[in-house]
Each structure stands twice: as C-alpha cells, then as structure tokens.
Amino acid sequence: MPKAKGKSRRQKYSYNLNRKRLYRSARRRAAPRIACSHIRHAWDPTKSVAQNLAEMGLAEDPNKAVPIPKKKLLGMEVESSGREQGKKIVRKPYVVNEMEYEASLPEKKSNTLSRDLIDYVRYMIQNHGENYKEMALDEKNYYQDTPKQIKRKINVYKNFYPEEYKDFIASLKQEKMDVQ
Q1: Full-prediction pTM beyond 0.70?
Q2: Collapsing DSSP states into helix, strand and coil, what is residue 76?
C-alpha cells in the first residue's frame, strides 16, 4: 500500500514541550493501579513501597513480618540473634481499621442460576413431580439431559434457592388440593 504524501518526512524536535513533566506524567500513568481503595487513597507517590506500607501498618514482606521459628537441635540451644526490630510507627492506622471493617462484613452471595435453568427446573417439577425418567422424555428437554443430569440440576436449584423451592412445592400441593 502506498504511504500518505506528508508522512515520510523526519520528526522535528518540539521546543515547546516540557520533557521532564511529560516523563513524570507518563511514569505516573504507567504505575499499576492499586485495587484496594483504602490503600490507594492513603498512598504517597513520593515514597517507596516499603515506606508507604510501613506507614499504613502493613507488611511489605510476609516472611519478615511472621518469621518461621528455627527448630532446636537435639539438646543444643540455637542462639537467637540479638537484633530485635523495634516497633515501627504507624502513621495511617485508619487504613488497617477500614480494611478490617470491610473484611468483617458478611459476603454477599453473587453467584446465581440463569433464568432459563430456573424456568426449566420449575417446568419439569410442575409437570412431572419427582419422576426423572418422564422428565428426560419431555419435549422441553432440549439438551437431551439424562434423568441423573436433570436430578442434579434440580438439586442445584434446591441448594441455591431453598426457600423459593419450598414455597414452589407448597404452592403445587395447594393447587393439587384445589383441583381435587
């Protein structure tokens, strides 16, 4: 393919650009995004990773934070190194407190079943009850599930929505009572 007419000339140096500012902003943009919002807001870009984490009261290296104790040999005492690390000053304790609070909240159930599967299971139970062989022969069994596969799908539905399943079964029993 031919090139566009004005594209082959060499680049000229632009004296109007502040190269130092461009370099700094590019480095800042290229830095990885911190996923935890508490740490991200307390982060100081002028300090190193170790300094930032120490100020927040977080461990940079878990192996140094919780060392593995040396085992004593038979009858011999292992000399402990005399250097004990002094307590580091935590300047931003609110970061750890917020993270602990967030971790203590109950986890929201995010996994659900598809609407198609729920409708499929309800249809099968409504028309066939507990007869899985009949369900396998049903015309709505598009994926040609075996009786065991259908039973498994119904059990998954029971586990995901136990209250809804009980209400559904109770309503089916009520309908049968009304018909008789």
Answers
A1: no
A2: coil
Report yes or no: 43 and 34 within 8 Å, Cβ to Cβ: yes
Angle at 143 between CA 138 and CA 149, to 5 degrees: 80
User: Which residue did the predictor score with more confidence, 178 or 114?
Assistant: 114
Say yes or no to pLDDT of 117 above 60.
yes
Angle subtended by helix axes 93-104 and 49-56, to nearest 10? 70
Q: Percent helix, strand and coil across the chain, each rounded to 5? A: 55, 0, 45
3-state helix/strand/coil string of 91-136: CCHHHHHHHHHHHHCCCCCCCCCCHHHHHHHHHHHHHHCCCHHHHH
Taking alpha carbons only, the member of 105, 111, 96 closest to residue 36 is 96
**38: CB partners within 8 A, 6+ apart:** 95, 98, 99, 102
- Given a contact cutoff of 8 angstroms between Cβ atoms, the answer to whether 158 and 147 are in contact is no
What percentage of the chain exceeds 90 in pLDDT? 57
